[in-house]
Structures are given as structure tokens and as C-alpha cells.
TrEMBL record:
Domain of life: Bacteria
Species this chain originates from: Winogradskyella eximia
Keyword terms, alphabetized: Membrane, Transmembrane, Transmembrane helix
Alphabetized GO MF terms: ABC-type transporter activity
Protein name, as recorded: ABC-2 family transporter
Any one GO cellular component localisation term in the record: plasma membrane
Transmembrane annotation, as ranges: 20-40, 60-84, 111-132, 152-173, 180-199, 249-270
Length: 275
């Protein structure tokens, strides 16, 4: 496994564009550090500091930072599809197979790299969240600090699932730009199917329950938006905005299932394709 990861890292680091995108994909999520220190002066009447609003208190901070950081996954998605596009355009895929790398090892090298970068991103976001929370949070009890640390697991699974989808799309179309375009098409397609389901079943709730099994929707639902939760903490009497924001095991299982399917389909494409 380490040999395959080292092989991919060497390829990525020798590519200037990939190197820049990797650095950006790791730096941008840390803009949450900037958010925590933002102070907004309202014409000299008063100063609003986000860190003092309680949104960086434990345990809600795990929810906020992982949701915010996951919005920047698109940058590494470009790296993932480029990994495949460059293999075809530079003829390195065929050369690797000639040099003794099996097709299974080729796909595994990509998947191991995806897991490696997802794990690194999760660890970095986890450390950043922990230290921001220690600085701003009013709660310092260990039971509260680590109460919702499962959002880190959801963040990790979300990255692995999304990048596995990008890997499959890259294998499918062989071109980075087209693969990223297919992501947008898939997003539109999921909403079209949702609309048809709600029309045919005459039930929005049933359509939403089915939609949560779709690839992109299932990944999004791993970490629900935290904004209503923040409002709930400030206005606990507003029961009409209450919602289930917790991380559920079945949501993780759905995304892991899709990840396995995408990796398997990528391998099947490579096996049947004439190189």
C-alpha cells in the first residue's frame, strides 16, 4: 500500500498544477481560523466578533468547521480527475502496466491516495477545530469537548465518497474538464429524478427519503447545514426550525457503499478498456 501511495505522490508532486491545487485544497479550509477572529465594526456603535457569539463553543464547533471545510473539496476533486486525465494524455498508464503494475494495483493506488489525502485533511481540520474551540468555548469538560467528534468521521467519509465518484468519472470520460462537467450533470439529474418522484408519488417526504440514497445527496446529508442549529441555540423556543442534524450510521453506510461501487466500476472500466 505504501509503495502505491508513494508512486502516486511522486507523480502529483512533479506536476506543478497538481502541486498548487493540493496546497490550495489544504489551506482554504483553514479560512475558518480567519472567520473565528473576524470583528465587524458597525459605524462605531458596537463591534461584532464572531468568536464571541458562541458559534465556536463545544460541541457545535465540530459541526460548523466540518461543514465549512467540506465546501472546499472541489479543489482536490480537480486533482483526482487530473490524476486520471494525465495518465491517459501522458501515456503513463500504459507505461505503468508495461512496467509490471497490475490494473488492480493501478486503481488501488488512486484509491489509497484518496484515502491518504482525506485522512490528512480530517486530521488537520480536527486539530484546528480543537484549538479554536479551546480558545473560544465556554465549556472545557472533556465529555462536552468530544461529544460530537463523529462529525470528523462524517467529514472523512464524505471526502472519500466524493473523490471516489470523481475517480470513476475520470475513468469514464478520460478528460478532467468533462469529468467535472459530469458532476454538474449528475447534480441536475438527481433533482430531475426527485421532481419526477414527488410528482408520481404525490409525496415530497417520500421523494426526499428516496433522494437521500442518491450519490451526491447522500454525501451532502452526512453533514447537514448548521445554520438553523445556531439559531436554535439562540432561540430555543422556536420549535418550528428544529431538525435532525446528527450523524447517523446508516448515512455513513450509504456513502461507503457508493464509494465501494465507484471504485469497483472504475476497476471494471479499466479491465475492459483497450489501452
Amino acid at each position: 500500500m505504501l509503495r502505491l501511495i508513494q508512486l502516486e505522490l511522486q507523480k502529483l508532486w512533479l506536476n506543478k498544477a497538481s502541486k498548487v491545487l493540493i496546497i490550495i485544497s489544504f489551506i482554504l479550509p483553514f479560512t475558518v481560523l480567519i472567520l473565528s477572529s473576524i470583528k465587524i465594526n458597525f459605524f462605531g456603535f458596537f463591534t461584532l466578533e464572531l468568536g464571541e457569539l458562541g458559534i465556536f463553543n463545544f460541541p457545535v464547533i465540530w459541526h460548523i468547521t466540518t461543514f465549512f471545510a467540506s465546501q472546499f473539496k472541489f479543489f482536490f476533486a480537480i486533482v483526482v480527475v487530473s490524476m486520471i486525465g494525465n495518465e491517459y494524455s501522458n501515456k503513463t498508464l500504459k507505461q505503468n502496466l508495461i512496467d509490471g503494475l497490475s490494473k488492480k494495483e493501478f486503481i488501488l493506488s488512486k484509491f489509497y491516495t484518496i484515502v491518504f489525502f482525506s485522512l490528512c485533511a480530517t486530521i488537520l481540520i480536527g486539530l484546528a477545530t480543537f484549538f479554536i474551540g479551546l480558545y473560544y468555548s465556554s465549556y472545557t469538560e472533556a465529555s462536552i469537548i468530544f461529544r460530537e467528534v463523529e462529525f470528523l468521521l462524517a467529514y472523512f467519509v464524505k471526502l472519500v465518497g466524493f473523490f471516489s465518484l470523481c475517480l470513476f468519472l475520470g475513468m469514464l470520460v478520460k478528460r478532467s474538464a468533462f469529468a467535472l462537467g459530469f458532476l454538474f450533470i449528475l447534480y441536475i439529474l438527481e433533482w430531475i429524478i426527485f421532481g419526477l418522484l414527488s410528482w408520481q408519488t404525490n409525496s415530497m417526504d417520500l421523494a426526499f427519503n428516496i433522494k437521500r440514497f442518491f450519490p451526491l445527496e447522500s454525501m451532502y446529508k452526512l453533514i447537514d447545514e448548521p445554520f438553523r442549529r445556531i439559531v436554535m441555540t439562540k432561540f430555543p423556543d422556536k420549535a418550528d426550525i428544529a431538525y435532525d442534524y446528527a450523524v447517523h450510521w446508516y448515512e455513513i453506510a450509504i456513502v461507503l457503499g457508493w464509494s465501494a461501487i465507484f471504485i469497483f466500476l472504475s476497476y471494471q472500466l479499466l479491465k475492459k478498456r483497450d489501452l
